[in-house]
Design a protein that fits this description.
By secondary structure, this protein is an all-alpha fold. It is about 65% helix and about 0% strand. The protein is globular and about 40 Å long.
């Protein structure tokens, strides 16, 4: 499930870059890519599941890059930053390219559904800024 979600996010970002005009393409592309790696370098290593059973499997990127665990107290703050980042990544093309909003919404709907399903199963969702909004699930 996490692979499908990652592929859909990648498709969404690529479409955003392709369909935006030149200046906006650069802004969106740089922000989307740099933010994604910033979150993998900061958020993932501060999660208590970094060494274990991460529901998104994005901890594997951090491990591949040999990033060590970080202070777990930073996790909640990083999830707030991540929420703002993902809101920008998903809303920017919807707002800037209104003629293609149905295409973006078609890709975004399964991403949201998969994210909510994953959050409900995540053991650290009670400490996650976004996970606290999705309802009942396992608690750490």
């Amino acid at each position: 499930m996490s692979i499908l979600e990652t592929v859909l996010i990648f498709v969404y970002m690529v479409l955003g870059v392709v369909l935006l005009k030149s200046n906006m393409r650069i802004v969106y592309g740089v922000f989307a890519v740099s933010g994604f790696f910033f979150l993998r370098i900061s958020l993932c290593p501060s999660c208590s599941l970094y060494e274990g059973n991460c529901t998104s499997r994005w901890n594997k990127i951090g491990k591949f890059l040999k990033i060590k665990e970080k202070d777990k107290a930073l996790f909640h703050s990083f999830t707030k930053v991540a929420t703002i980042y993902w809101i920008f990544v998903f809303m920017f093309p919807l707002i800037i390219i209104p003629a293609r909003e149905s295409l973006f919404l078609f890709i975004l709907l399964p991403i949201v559904i998969l994210q909510v399903i994953r959050c409900k199963k995540c053991p650290v969702r009670s400490r996650c800024f976004f996970g606290a909004f999705v309802g009942k699930g396992k608690r750490a």
